[in-house]
């Protein structure tokens, strides 16, 4: 199977004037959206259990960034653990817009107060990858998030690829599915950026902020097809290793690798 391209040396970010103007306009729109959604979020919490505002906000972020999200296939309606490939920060608003899913994130995000606050609003489960003593706590948090939000997404590659292939899946990130809780479906989700994948991907030595700004500077839309593949069944659900292997195989087949 094809693997991600080798990392490229870091390059300074140089943007034309038009790109800089698009960045300014889009960031201003995102801040306005945030200011509008925060009071709506806390108001909605009073009346509903499943708060729709994070999905509205993240979907709006993707739309402002110029992302054209297209959906193929049928998503499991409730109690879904979604396994997706990871290409760029765009993946998160796109999946949220399509599913309303919460996410599993590494605990480094929790060290930044603003990011921690935003992630917490979307019921993000923070995973301490190197803390074996917190595994049981993390498993409980993952299962609770699936129960409370209806869907939880993890990126089993553990990092971003160039979008033209798949990195090895880390079954350790699926510890909460071993054994699989009753009533939980496991569904692979392929994020397909088509021929523009390499131009969108956050790989190599590129800084995350540079990837964010590069995409905001684009004049053409980012076309992203969110492809829901059939849920895993039978022997594929035996344990976390079989789940990781079966999900990767399904995604690789969909990418024609």
What does this protein structure show overall?
Strand 3, helix 4 and strand 4 (125-127) form a beta-alpha-beta unit. The chain is globular, with a radius of gyration of 18 Å. The N and C termini lie close together (6 Å). It is an alpha/beta fold. The relative contact order is 0.20. 40% of the residues lie in helices and 15% in strands. The protein has a seven-stranded mixed β-sheet with strand order 1-7-6-2-5-3-4, with helices on both faces. The protein has a single domain (17-254), classed as Glycerol-3-phosphate (1)-acyltransferase (3-Layer(aba) Sandwich). Residues 4-9 have low confidence and may be disordered. It is built from eight helices and seven strands; from the N terminus they run ααββαβαβαββααβα.
Proper CATH architecture? 3-Layer(aba) Sandwich
Write down how many β-strands occur, each being a DSSP E stretch of 2 or more residues: 7
Low-confidence stretches: 4-9
Give, in spatial order, the strands making up the sheet with the most strands.
Answer: 1-7-6-2-5-3-4
Basic shape: globular
The amount of beta strand, in percent, is: 5-15%
Counting structural domains, the number is: 1
List the helices and strands and how they pair.
Layout: H1 17-47, H2 53-64, E1 67-72, E2 80-84, H3 91-99, E3 102-106, H4 113-121, E4 125-127, H5 135-149, E5 151-154, E6 185-192, H6 197-200, H7 208-216, E7 222-228, H8 240-254
Parallel strand pairs: 1-7, 2-5, 2-6, 3-4, 3-5
Antiparallel strand pairs: 6-7
Helix pairs in contact: 1-2, 2-3
């Amino acid at each position: 199977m094809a693997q991600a391209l080798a990392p490229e040396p870091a390059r300074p970010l140089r943007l034309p004037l038009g790109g800089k103007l698009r960045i300014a306009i889009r960031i201003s729109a995102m801040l306005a959206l945030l200011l509008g959604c925060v009071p709506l979020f806390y108001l909605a919490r009073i009346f509903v259990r499943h708060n729709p505002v994070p999905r509205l906000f993240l979907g709006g972020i993707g739309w402002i960034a110029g992302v054209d999200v297209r959906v193929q296939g049928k998503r499991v309606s409730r109690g879904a653990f979604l396994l997706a490939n990871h290409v760029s920060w765009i993946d998160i608003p796109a999946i949220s817009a399509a599913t309303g899913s919460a996410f599993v994130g590494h605990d480094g995000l929790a060290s930044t107060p603003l990011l921690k606050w935003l992630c917490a609003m979307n019921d993000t489960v923070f995973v301490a990858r190197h803390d074996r003593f917190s595994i049981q706590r993390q498993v409980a948090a993952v299962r609770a998030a699936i129960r409370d939000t209806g869907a939880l997404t993890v990126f089993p590659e553990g990092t971003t690829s160039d979008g033209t292939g798949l990195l090895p899946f880390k079954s350790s990130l699926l510890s909460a599915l071993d054994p699989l809780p009753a009533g939980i479906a496991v569904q692979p989700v392929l994020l397909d950026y088509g021929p523009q994948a390499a131009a969108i991907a956050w790989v190599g030595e590129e800084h995350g902020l540079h990837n964010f700004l590069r995409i905001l500077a684009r004049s053409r839309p980012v076309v992203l097809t969110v492809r829901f593949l059939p849920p895993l069944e039978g022997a594929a659900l035996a344990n976390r290793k079989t789940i990781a292997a079966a999900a990767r195989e399904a995604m690789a087949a969909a990418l024609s690798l």
